[in-house]
Design a protein that fits this description.
This protein is an all-alpha fold. The protein contains 21 helices and 2 strands. The protein has a two-stranded antiparallel sheet with strand order 1-2.
Length: 487
């Protein structure tokens, strides 16, 4: 482990995080929120100064080629530490506005990991702080390291290791031979879709400030909204439909979307085996929930379809916003919603969770094993989109899913014991690890918040949010002894 490489990479990232922190100052100046101007300025200066110190700590790494031979293990450490430090910097504006350290860190980490769980008991806070919540979700949705790969010349070659360290999915698909161009293409698609969502919401009658905040939170699959009643607080079926469409887009692979836009061929969506499964599962589970709402909750036909599709999509893509208070729905409806938390979005999307491609791999692996019992000499392979998946990738996927559920069970038991409530324990464990946000229960439900939970529950929640966003592997590397053998 070469500490000079790690400090240089993190230093570069922190300096640019600091520059991003200055952007909300424009909003604070517009609304004459002088305390927030100072808060964002302090956070930006802190980040830039710390980054500069780390970047200049070893002069051997200050040229453009210094990071080109960064190793995969070093990139994993950089990804983990960068997200932890990003969370600390993002918490500074909340500290300036009177929140405790743990609550500030909770809200910040919930934002950058696009979880959307909040400790706000009142939304009577500065506009610029509400903007900051959505903005850090937007930055975290595509990934801060992917952003800096696109804009920093130092990551021109090293970007490949950094790119897959931040999003260590079961495949290493890229759009172009140069990973830097891939990162740029992803951010272009992401930015254009965010702008399009904001324009659609503005055309539907939403206030411009809310349009921008909700658009950033929707495309990032984050769920933070400036409205205390989430999307349902706007009381507009058109707005709910618009958000539903863009949530579905946020849960689909931006890699595939970029290919569709580049080649002007929408059929590429359906050629993706993962996207087909994603669309079919969402439709089937939504239809089942719609039937329950229609027959058990006496919803009208159209209302049951709209409400079921929105909430299943919101939980499956880990967005976590709500169109209404589903805590009031029947037990069967809430059980379906609980199952929806495990569906997950596509790999390469802004959504969290296990990712649909992993479920697809596990399913095909189980089918092969059953077939091999009947035909022991059969030579079988797993293919996705007609491409054979390497054996090591299948093993990594099995390990990931196993680790995911081990962490889920341990977190659920710990939180249940701390809070003396098994519903809070189970729901908050999956909502934090899957970066979903508000789920079931009156305390942490769609109209609730996490402010009343204990200190230790919030600590577990913060840990789960970070490990869920980084998809476990990079975070686990930090706890390996050999990762810290300094060279």
């Amino acid at each position: 482990m070469r500490l000079n490489y790690i400090s240089d990479a993190i230093g570069l990232i922190l300096m640019d995080v600091g520059l991003m922190t200055f952007i909300p100052i424009i909003v604070a100046l517009y609304y004459h929120e002088w305390t927030c101007v100072l808060a964002f300025f302090a956070a930006g200066i802190l980040s830039v100064a710390l980054g500069d110190i780390l970047h200049k700590s070893d002069k051997r790494c200050n040229d453009l080629d210094a990071l080109n031979d960064i190793k995969r293990s070093e990139a994993l450490v950089v990804a983990s530490l960068a997200w932890i430090l990003f969370g600390l910097i993002a918490s500074v504006p909340f500290l300036f506005n009177g929140f405790s350290f743990i609550d500030s860190l909770f809200e910040a980490v919930s934002g950058i990991t696009t979880t959307g769980a909040t400790i706000l008991t009142s939304f009577d806070v500065p506009k610029s702080l509400l903007f900051w919540r959505s903005f850090i979700q937007w930055l975290g949705g595509m990934g801060i390291i992917i952003l800096f790969i696109a804009i920093l010349p130092q990551f021109a070659v090293a970007g490949r290791q950094m790119f897959f360290a931040e999003s260590p999915g079961p495949t290493e698909e890229k759009l172009t031979p140069r990973i830097k161009n891939t990162a740029k293409a992803l951010w272009v698609v992401y930015t254009v879709l965010t702008a399009l969502c904001a324009i659609c919401l503005w055309a539907a009658g939403m206030h411009p400030f809310d349009c921008i905040c909700n658009a950033m939170s929707t495309l990032s699959a984050g769920g933070f909204s400036p409205n205390p009643e989430s999307i349902g607080g706007y009381h507009s079926n058109l707005i709910i439909c618009i958000i539903s469409v863009f949530m579905f887009i946020a849960g689909a692979s931006f890699m595939v979307q970029s290919k569709v836009l580049t080649k002007f061929d929408p059929r590429l969506f359906w050629k993706s085996e993962e996207f087909r499964l994603y669309a079919k599962v969402i439709v089937c589970v939504s239809a089942l929930l719609a039937l329950v709402l229609y027959f058990q909750n006496n919803f009208s036909f159209l209302h049951s379809i709209q409400a079921s599709f929105y909430q299943v999509l919101s939980l499956a893509t880990s967005t976590g916003s709500s169109s209404e208070n589903y805590q009031l729905w029947s037990l069967d409806a809430k059980l379906i919603l609980f199952v929806s938390m495990f569906i997950s979005s596509c790999s390469g999307s802004a959504g969290g969770g296990v990712k649909m491609v992993r479920w697809l791999l596990i399913w095909k692996y189980l089918k092969n094993e059953v077939y091999r019992i009947l035909h022991p000499n059969a030579v079988l392979s797993i293919k996705i989109d007609r491409v054979v998946v390497p054996t090591n990738v299948v093993k990594q996927t099995i390990f990931y899913v196993f680790a995911y559920f081990i962490i889920f069970v341990m977190s659920a038991l710990l939180i249940s014991a701390i809070e003396n409530n098994i519903i809070i324990g189970t729901c908050s464990a999956i909502t934090s690890l899957g970066d979903i946000g508000p789920v079931l229960g009156y305390v942490i439900g769609p109209m609730g918040n996490y402010s009343s939970l204990s200190f230790w529950t919030k600590i577990i929640f913060i840990f789960n949010m970070l490990i869920g966003r980084l998809e476990i592997i990079p975070f686990l590397v930090l706890f390996r002894k050999e990762s810290w053998k300094v060279k």
